[in-house]
């Protein structure tokens, strides 16, 4: 695309965003004194999450200004597609690094999406229905930024909790309830990684409500895949991390599932895969 090694650029951006997320997570212990908090809000990644923006504003029946960056993510997705999933999401970065490791170990994990890949849209619908009625669904815990933040909290800080969390009385310890939540969070994360060993980015394909949200918005994005000169070797189909490319006809792909990782472009032996701006209609 444009003669630029876009996959390498994506990996660089993804790595920088992930490093920033890690720094922000570490800064939550002492948010006032942390150097990074002088330049970036600690909750930056959650603020640019459009699903968090929609649910909070919907449930509160008012605009919450600190979450308005989420609308910018929606606008970018409307124009460019699910670039947030392929370039920004820290959970996606973990999946991609794990995929790199599996390839080095020669473990087959790429293939078509399971038949129930639309389950994420039902999860999204449930979350939005809760917001319409003024509530925040427990399913918001499946949002990738919420989930990976909870995983980080469970791993890094399980015994240093504040004593006044909402779900237990102020002045009393978190006791077994909090550790049970930690266990469930880690169990879910390990289960996701185990499933990713079988099918690449299985969470993104099947259960990510944010991915479903961005997929709906990006259905008619203007940055789209072109395949002039395709020889139908299906190499791109087998390497697509979200199963967006059809396995029977590699020229057909699902724009809502494409995360603009540009892996198809880099793997194509005849340079027939590239992305360009065009009218989606």
Overview in brief:
With 281 residues, the protein is an all-alpha fold. The chain has 13 helices and 2 strands; from the N terminus they run αααααααααααβααβ.
The run of helices and strands is HHHHHHHHHHHEHHE
Please summarize the sheet with the most strands.
2 strands, antiparallel
% residues in beta strands: under 5%
- SS element count, helices: 13
User: How many DSSP-defined strands?
Assistant: 2
- State the low-pLDDT regions, or none: 163-172
In angstroms, what is the radius of gyration?
20 Å
3D shape: globular
Distance between the termini: 21 Å
| Alpha-beta classification | mainly alpha
Q: What proportion of the residues is helical, as a percent range?
A: 40-55%
Kindly report the spatial arrangement of strands forming the biggest sheet.
Answer: 1-2
- Overall pLDDT confidence: 86
